[in-house]
Design brief:
homodimer; alpha/beta; 4-stranded parallel beta sheet; 12 helices; 13 strands; about 35% helix; elongated
Chain lengths: ~400, ~400
């Protein structure tokens, strides 16, 4: 194996998660301990910040603060949503890589970020600039192909299932009839909304779950609510923000079935569906709940397995690059057998992952399109296991304080 | 001391909290261990359920499930919002108390519930029916008079501070400018919204906080946001749902300053303020976040001190009644000195507590009305300490499963 000497650059991209910084910690600690890697840089604000030369020096960070990254939500390096297309951007990246002798590049993100990663890898290769490029997966949407699941999803799933179990408890408080509609993130894939069903394991799951993968009908939704509510006087319904009608139009953007309210600007999907239930079914106590951004950075409610796997993915990326791999994304291969769960890292060509999306299989959603099957449960259940110990300060989680010393 | 032999009845009332069931556990376990108390009953759905004879038998519950009450959010017995006024209701309560030989009544709730408790106590006394009545405080609003603070508030405060610290982390992710407006519960008192400031202890607090106790002006709010946002490109603002204008009108109900949007039905306060910021200040990325019901039953993010004190309050109520006390509410007297915190239970006449409200002192809010002072911080900070160990099942919190065996 040829030893490639040089600096490495790690950066984060796309939406934050509760464990993306655990991957950062895994990658940085592994890189710091490697003799081939001469310096360890962080790119601030993703590829956009890198283009502005906004790099920081991980050699100058306090190891104790680095160790806190795995319990720090959001994205410690900062992130971006930037589509790399212009030729001059690529030239500029090459210049920066040359200036700092960057020979290892690790980019942590979702499908768009893997596309960026793929393009950079190809460009550097065409320019005969030796650099090993490895993607590290991350998304609460869980929609990356080629991997069993994505770091970030298990913790978001645990948070969603926990919150739904609490909403279930809340629903039981009063004798009066009531309905809650909870809106869960996931524009194109229903993995996260589906995970609310995990609360059924403790007897506190939602009655109805609607995913983007099954066409949504307002009439059916109201009939479902009427039926469940008619039995128990209560109904807990979970909807993915990405639910669509039979023509593929987002419900949140269409006025179908919501016409009589006429407000297209204000109020999220949950609130609008809650209003529809109130108005069309005449149920008085109906509430829409939108956990919104809390879903993607709830560091106080993470899956220990997710934290460990996210860390492992960061480490595996550096190890793969040191072995000579490039143009790949780290993924997971998992076994679920007789209550046992095993996860190991694999490598997937970036070109397979870039811009592709993995929806929830239609057969993992029930025939009525208002719940998930046992296959979904078997898939998702092991992912949310474990509660990591958390270092707290004044009763609040202690986050990593990085110094972000700019690279000269 | 005269020993009063007879059954006891425990019930819950008002809005749920994350620790109201810890008080239930404290009261029930203490009552079960008493020789004077012959039977231990729970009243389902507060005084409303009691009026329907809906009682359950705690002697028949599994002690292992009872032990899980302190990590079970919401209200295990069920609750109600029922104003006791009719003479026949009082007569009916006396009949039920006589039928089951109830000589001890413990009612766990907020100010309305203490009013109920007080009225029942007086009526039974007028009817020469010996029964000791003790109130147990509970409210995330923290607005009961006579007590340092109320069980339920510390955990809700910890949850709010934690969520705000996560929203702060979220705000730092992108280089682009952005504003978050977070709406916190508290119709008349700003204790809970104020607790968001506790996140400043870990460097992740909100920039601006608006409480109902200081008049809210839309112009000032927009000017505050413009100023903070102008400096850093970011702004995290917390508003209490109960903010009012100079005339005492709720902002969420008034159209002042929000007129141009014209929607009075849809969208909570946070969303409407976010829209105002977007429209009036021309900032593109503005989001309203409403944690809604999650604030009052986030069992996954409680203060250990709160759980312990809530349990203690339940125990103290039973102990006081056994000592011969009646017509009182359990309260807390606390010392905060040189970083040390000590809390002990006291008794307060129910008539002092019933229907009274304790707002945040105006001098604990800064002169500008957009933040809290160090006095507020010193008061609230010790309350959120400690993270209790949690028994989990499948990666989710395990809640108590009571059998609710009806009393014959």
């Amino acid at each position: 194996m040829e030893i490639l000497q040089g600096a490495c650059l790690v950066a984060q991209s796309g939406g934050p998660t509760a464990v993306i910084n655990a991957s950062l910690q895994g990658a940085v600690e592994k890189a710091l301990s490697s003799s081939a890697i001469t310096r360890v840089f962080g790119g601030r604000y993703g590829i956009q910040g890198i283009l502005e030369g906004n790099l920081c020096d991980f050699d100058k960070e306090n190891p104790r603060e680095l160790a806190l990254l795995s319990q720090t939500p959001a994205a410690a390096l900062g992130s971006c949503r930037y589509r790399l297309e212009k030729e001059e951007d690529f030239r500029h990246i090459l210049e920066i890589f040359q200036r700092y002798d960057i020979r290892y590049f690790f980019y942590n993100g979702g499908n768009d970020s893997m596309d960026t990663c793929n393009k950079i890898s190809q460009y550097l290769s065409e320019q005969n600039y030796p650099c090993r490029v490895i993607g590290i997966p991350k998304t609460i949407d869980n929609d990356l192909v080629g991997t069993d699941h994505c770091p970030g999803y298990p913790s978001a799933a645990k948070y969603v299932a926990t919150v739904c179990s609490e909403m279930y408890q809340e629903l039981q408080v009063y004798e009066t009839e009531s309905v809650l509609v909870v809106e869960i993130m996931g524009r194109n894939a229903g993995w996260l909304a589906g995970s609310s069903a995990l609360a059924k394991q403790i007897g506190c799951g939602p009655d109805l779950i609607y995913l983007p993968e099954a066409p949504f009908s307002m009439e059916q939704f109201l009939a479902d609510i009427r039926r469940v509510h008619g039995k128990s006087g209560k109904c807990l319904a979970v909807v993915s923000e990405g639910i669509r009608d039979i023509h593929g139009r987002l419900i949140v953007e269409s006025a179908d079935g919501l016409d009589s309210f006429g407000h297209t600007q204000l109020g999220g999907l949950a609130q609008r569906l809650a209003n529809a239930v109130k108005e069309k079914l005449g149920i008085k106590k109906v509430r829409g709940i939108e956990p919104s951004l809390l879903q993607r950075c709830a560091g106080h409610c993470v899956s220990e397995r997710d934290v460990e796997e996210a860390f492992l993915a960061g480490e595996a990326a550096v190890e793969a690059a040191l072995r000579g791999e490039t143009n790949k994304m780290v993924g997971f291969s998992c076994e679920r057998k007789a209550g046992k769960y095993r996860c190991s890292t694999i490598l997937i060509p970036l070109s397979d992952v870039a811009n592709a999306e993995k929806p929830v299989p239609r057969e993992w959603i029930n025939a009525e399109g208002n719940g998930v099957t046992s296959e979904f449960m078997d898939y998702a259940a092991p992912l949310i296991h474990g509660e990591p110990p958390q270092i707290c300060d004044c009763g609040l989680p202690r986050y990593a304080h990085l110094r972000y010393i700019p690279v000269e």
